[in-house]
Amino acid sequence: MLIASPAISQYDTYSPYTRFALGDFTKGGFGQNLAMGGTGLAIKKSNHLNYLNPAAYSARDSMSVLFDFGFNGYMNYYKSTAVNNSWRNGNFHHIALSVPIGKNFAMGTGLVPFSSVGYNIKQEFNDLGTGDPLDFYHHGEGGIMKYFLGVSTELFDHVSVGVNMNYLLGDINRERYLSFPSQPDFASTSAIEEIHISNTYFGFGFQYHEVISDKFFFTLGGTYDLQTTFNSTLDNTITNKFPSSSTNSGAYLNDSTFISSNIIISGSDTLTGSITIPAKIGFGIALGIPDKLTVTADYYIQDWSSTNSLNNFLENDGFNLADTRSMHFGAEYTPDHEALRGYHKLMSYRIGGYYSDHYIQVQDYQMKEYGITFGVGLPMNKSQSSFNIAFTLITRGTAEENFVKENYGILTFSVTLHDLWFYKRKFD
Length: 428
Description:
The chain is mainly β and about 425 residues long. It has helices at about 5-10, 30-35, 310-315, 345; strands at about 25, 65-80, 85-100, 105-125, 135-155, 160-180, 190-210, 215-225, 230-240, 250, 260, 265-275, 280-290, 295-300, 320, 325-335, 350-360, 365-380, 385-395, 405-420. About 5% of the residues lie in helices and about 60% in strands.
């Protein structure tokens, strides 16, 4: 996990909507979840590491161990009334481990991305007094990682509960830059904000799992992430940069003081503030035929409008926080998990979709996001280890009224390794 931490800390995106608040929240889950529309609240499988609901860890038996890691790649296309653009990127996505703790408990731990910031915007204006052109740049990058450590147990034959301790850690860097392209002797001004975030919050989950005559099953699941408010620091620096080719290569601060450098830091300060992430509630249901067919759906709600701490602490040019609702649907089909011939019969075929509201509202417009997903699970040597591929196609925003419409795809590769530990050999 320590080796993977620097790689995931570079997890990024490229979207103008990440200019606001904490950026884009990462879609949760690993390869299996992502291929099924991001569902997971009611999924409980012994060969599936599902951190979306900590109650699912109890699917481990007393000897099974799961290790999961993955990568993903982005392909983005942007469209507005004035310009089109595209962007590509790839990065490490996650690393996680789940092990049993005795006969009645199991745990899961891992490192996953939580949110990401990445944008580069240029605005062109004309000075109202002189008519000279002004170029205003907005640039941002960074993100937040989440370390999770959870444990679960089965209270009764069909009911399991779990809890996750989540630790958020990350930096968000934003820069606003003003230049005068027609005035080469004018100084350019930049304001740089570096936000440092770290905090712990807890999430709880439950699942009720029932199998009827080994021919039909259904599972009900629910999660509740506690509201958390944590302190963060903001390093704010304002810099004036004079052209190095100017006659004096410097500037007078007053009648007698001359600065020979062409860069002057005119303001620097460190502020402390609080950021509140509201409580999040999720409900899920899954049903189907054991080891063959799973159909599942999840629903989340989060009341962002009840907090204004992001508005007070982060760049808030014309945005407000809005309540969010999201619905996720998915299905998985395995023709015959015990087939002796025909590898295609052992494969798991997955499909899904989702709809969600964005938590940022800009100029009375709350962005909507739609996505369809599909993928496959490729077993390794008829074991519970597998190689998983998921592809997500997403549309959000609009190209009307000077907004930006985004169409992008995410290709995720993940490997789930299964092994048997903690047993004593009677014969060597």
